[in-house]
Each structure stands twice: as C-alpha cells, then as structure tokens.
Specification:
- The complex is a heterodimer.
- Chain A is of the alpha/beta class.
- Chain A contains nine helices and nine strands.
- Chain A has one domain: Alpha-Beta Barrel (fumarase).
- In chain A, the strands form two sheets. Chain A has a five-stranded mixed β-barrel with strand order 2-3-6-7-9. In chain A, strands 4-5 form a two-stranded antiparallel sheet.
- The radius of gyration of chain A is 19 Å and the shape is globular.
- By secondary structure, chain B is an alpha+beta fold.
- In chain B, strand 8 and strand 9 form a beta hairpin.
- In chain B, about 50% of the residues are buried.
- The chains are: A alpha/beta, B alpha+beta.
- At the A-B interface, strand 4, strand 5, helix 6 and helix 8 of A face helix 3, helix 4, strand 4 and helix 5 of B.
C-alpha cells in the first residue's frame, strides 16, 4: 500500500497552495507553464532582453526543458514529448531570474542544492518540482492541451526557445523542495551514504590520482 | 546491389522505432527490477516509466522529450554492395536523421559546441556519428541507430595493472554513485564497461557494450561473464534506485568489452544507457528487403578476434 500522497494544483499556484506540499509528494498541474533553459537565461539576463512577455502571458511556472517538437508547414506546432534537463547548471542565473520572472514553481531534472533553495527559492516563496524518472516524456506530452505561444524561436531555435504550454493534469512530478527549502534528494543521499563505507570495503583509491579528486562519497558532482 | 531508396526508407523507420519503442529486453529487465524494488519512491518512478512506455507506443510519440543524440552503426557484409557506394549511404543516413527529426518529431539536440548553431535537424559537423564494422561471407548490411543521452553517466580513467580488479570495482562504484545521485544518469541503466584499448577505443568499447548488447547477453569469456554478473549485483547493492532514491534498481545489466592495451596500463571507461535505452536495428538484403530486430548482434566472434588471420570457429564453419 503506497504512502505517497498525490496533489492536483491549479496554476498559478498561491503560496497557500504550495505550503500544503511536502517533499516526496506527487503533483499534477493544470494551467500555464513555460520552458526556459540556458539560452533563455543568457538572453533575458546577460544579453539584457528581459522576459519575452508579461507574467499573464507566460504564467509563473518555469520548466527546465525543451520539447521534442517541430514547426509544421502551416505554422502550427507538433509536440511529441517533453522531458526536463538537469537544473543545477542554471544556478548562477537564479537570483536575477526570480526577480524578472516572478516564478514560484521551477520544474526540472535532479533539483538544486538546499543552499540554493534557502538563498533563492525561500525568499521568493517558490518550490522545486522534479520530473519523474526523467523519461516520462510521453506522459507529459499527453498533458499538453495546446502550445499557446513560442517566443524567440528564430533567435534561439526549437530546443532553446520559450514554449508557452497550456496543460491539464500535467505530470507526474515529485516535490523536491518545500517552502522551507528542504531537499528530498539530499534526504535520500544521506540515507544511502550510511551504507557506502561497507560497499567500498576491500577497494582502494586508484594508483594515479586526479586533480580535485575526493574520496568523500557523501559529496555530489553538482 | 542494395538499392539506396530501401536503405533510406529503413533508416527513417529505425529512427522512429528507436525514439518510440523501448526494446523488449530492456523492458523485461526493468520489470524484474520493479518486482524486486522495496524503495517506495524508486518503485513509484519505475511504475511511471512503465506507464510512459505504453503511452509512447500507443500515441506513437517519443518516449522521452530528450531524444538523445542520434548516431549510426553500420555493419557491411564483405560481399555487400550499395547503390552509389559508401558516400551515397552516408548521405542517406544523414537525410533519414534530418527527416525523422522533423517527422517524429525528435528534439533537435545537435548544436555547434562554440557557436551553438542549431540546424534543427540533428545534423552538423560530425553529426550523426557513423561507425563501421564488417562481417565475413555476407552480402547484407546491418543498420543500427542508437539515440543515447549526451550529458551524464560516462567516465574514463587510466588504471594500472597494480590497481587490479579491486581498482576496476572502485571506479565502477565511483561512476555509478556520482552520476546516480539525483538520478543524473537516468538509472536503472544498462552499464557498459570498456577495458583496454587506447583512450579513444576504450571509450568506444564501453559505449558499444552499453548500447549494442541486449539485456541478458554475457561475454563469451566465462571469467569476464562472471565479473559482469558480480557487477550487476554490486551496482544494485549500493542502496540507490531510480532517480537516486533509496532502493535497489540501479543496474539492469552490465556488459564488459575488452581490447588489447599498452602493457603498462589498464584503461577503463563506464557508460550508462538510460531508462530510455533507444536502439533499433535492421538487416537489409541485396534485394532491398529489410528485417527488423532488437538485437544489434554487433559483437561477433569476428569482431572479437584476437589472432592475426581470421579463422571462423569450427562450429560456425560447420554450419
């Protein structure tokens, strides 16, 4: 019998809605989300373009992804599947990003560190949702009702453009960080770390070491 | 003479199959992992993935939004001849890649490393990669496409004979754990290990071991096969499951390929072929007919030969 709780959220979500979500809960979304990854951050922040549209047009949910999509000859869009890309690479833009986007949900792969949650997410009353398995692209594709708009398609290309998606029962996602900045991944890492010393028994570090190397298995690569 | 049109038609179908249909051998392996999984979150993730494969097949949509970086493996029968020759074949594979990117659709993942130029068709300088192999006494061509993810779950290290099997084990665990945390490697995975060769060949062997052998296949050297089996168990004993959650579903299978290396070294590469283990294959005969299958049958006695001259094994010669 599963203990995992499931929640359905209408977008935009209020802080009260987000307050109810505990790490490890499963969430489905209905409403508007938009994609933005490295090139959008660079363009909006470093190149000074700002957001491509207002919050009414984009929504307040930033999905770190790009769809498997094509522009059809009649100018409409075919979207087959969407899957997140790893979020830790976008850490350096977070402060500016929250300021100009007003997002309160970020969806991606693998989460970020609890340190980043406390610095950037908590002050903005934002949470992080992780996609599941990182391969449920077809299920997520099914949840897309329509492509409302695509911004910066010409400037950034299909894989990096801003895709504004109207979604229904879009998911599943798992709550990775809550409004207090706790991280599900870090909780799980800590549990697994307890057994690692025994696992490594009998092995020894490689004869030739590498710069920057550590044998502390509790460390992460992100 | 194999007609070019049938090669391109088959290649386009392979592109779609790879993106949409999870191979049966991986699916069966994942179901076994799901049955054994005690970690609640990890089990939930695998159930969602099983549902996702069904949705992809039913809707004919890509199983994962990151459709990987398409590449080709071509095996030429020694007597095979292609209309237009190898240059025409390469053009057909590039056309099939571009057409499928638009028609499936796939995500146009391929960009210039510096200028980030994207042709929106997964083609560019060096893309898609095309690797070749050969087979004696045959007039067919095998086409295999693999759309492996491109960012995480791969590492290389120069080990030395003094490191021994324990050193191999440690680097294997290091790679699985560092990329398994938060599920960056999108496990449970088919893990491929390359041992030996030069640095480039070591990486190629490991990648091919992950992507071109089916779940359940064992290396013909019984001592290597025993290490493969030990490593499946070891990987699943880390305590980590899908997405890096507590669990036991890390390794669906482990394949090791070896190549002769420098007498002083023991280079090793590790590759993880993810929850969307995208591969599809077909054999195209001289009359242009195609036979689709899921087993790439890439590593043969001929591919693994260690003698100067090729002598078919007695059993094969008797057939």
């Amino acid at each position: 019998m599963s203990e995992i709780r499931t929640a359905h959220l209408d977008l935009p979500a209020t802080t009260a809605d987000l307050r109810k979500l505990a790490i490890g809960a499963v969430v489905y979304l209905t409403g508007r989300v938009f994609t933005a990854r490295e090139r959008v951050y660079q363009h909006a922040i470093e190149e000074g373009a700002g957001m491509p549209a207002g919050k009414d047009a984009l929504g307040a949910v930033n999905f770190h992804c790009s769809p498997a999509a094509a522009v059809k000859p009649d100018g409409t869009y075919a979207v087959s599947a969407v899957t997140a890309t790893a979020s830790f690479r976008f850490a350096k833009w977070l402060g500016d990003w929250f300021r100009i986007s007003g997002c309160n949900i970020i969806i991606g792969k693998g989460g970020m560190t609890s340190e980043l949650y406390r610095t950037h997410f908590v002050p903005n009353a934002a949470i992080y949702l992780t996609t599941v398995g990182y391969g449920t692209g077809a299920l997520l594709g099914r949840g897309i009702r329509r492509v409302a708009e695509v911004y910066w398609l010409k400037e950034l290309g299909i894989a990096q453009a801003v895709w504004v998606l109207d979604v229904e029962k879009f998911g599943p996602f798992i709550v990775e960080s809550d409004l207090d900045g706790n991280s599900l991944f870090e909780r799980e890492n800590a549990k697994i770390a307890a057994g690692l010393d025994r696992l490594y028994e009998g092995t020894r570090p490689a004869t030739m070491r590498r710069f920057g190397e550590t044998d502390d298995k509790t460390q992460e690569v992100i | 003479m194999i007609p070019l049109a049938s090669l391109q038609r088959t290649a386009e179908e392979l592109m779609a199959k790879a993106a949409i249909e999870i191979p049966d051998d991986y699916l069966a392996g994942l179901r076994r992992a799901a049955d054994a999984e005690k970690g609640e979150l990890s089990a939930f993730v695998i159930r969602a993935m099983l549902e996702n494969y069904e949705a992809a097949k039913h809707d004919r949509r890509a199983m994962c939004g990151d459709t990987g970086v398409p590449r080709w493996y071509v095996k030429f029968g020694n007597e095979a001849r292609v209309e237009g020759g190898p240059v025409a074949l390469e053009a057909a594979l590039r056309r099939a890649t571009a057409n499928a990117t638009r028609n499936v659709p796939l995500r146009p993942n391929r960009v210039h490393p510096l200028w980030r130029t994207d042709h929106d068709n997964n083609c560019g300088i060096g893309a898609p990669e095309i690797e070749y192999a050969f087979h004696p006494d045959a007039d067919w061509i095998d086409l295999i496409t693999v759309h492996k993810g491109g960012l995480f779950g791969t590492d290389y290290r120069m080990l030395f004979p003094a490191d021994g099997l324990d050193g191999i084990k440690r680097f294997y665990l290091d790679t699985l754990i560092q990329f398994g945390k938060r599920g960056l490697a999108c496990q449970p995975a088919i893990v491929g290990i390359g041992l030996g060769g030069s640095k480039d060949i070591c990486s190629v062997l490991g990648k091919q071991a992950a992507c071109l052998r089916v779940v359940g296949d064992r290396n013909p050297d019984p001592r290597i096969a025993a290490i493969e089996e030990e490593f499946i168990e070891l990987g699943n004993a880390i305590g980590m499951g899908a997405m890096g959650f507590v669990g036991s579903s890390m390794v669906i299978d482990c394949h090791i390929e070896v190549g002769y290396c420098h007498t002083g070294g023991m280079p090793m590469s590790v590759h993880m072929f993810c929850l969307s283990s995208r591969r599809a294959c077909a054999r195209i005969f001289a009359d242009g007919t195609a036979e689709f299958r899921t087993d790439p049958m890439w590593f043969t006695d001929y591919m693994r030969r260690s003698t100067v001259e090729w002598r078919a094994p007695a059993a094969a010669a008797a057939e």
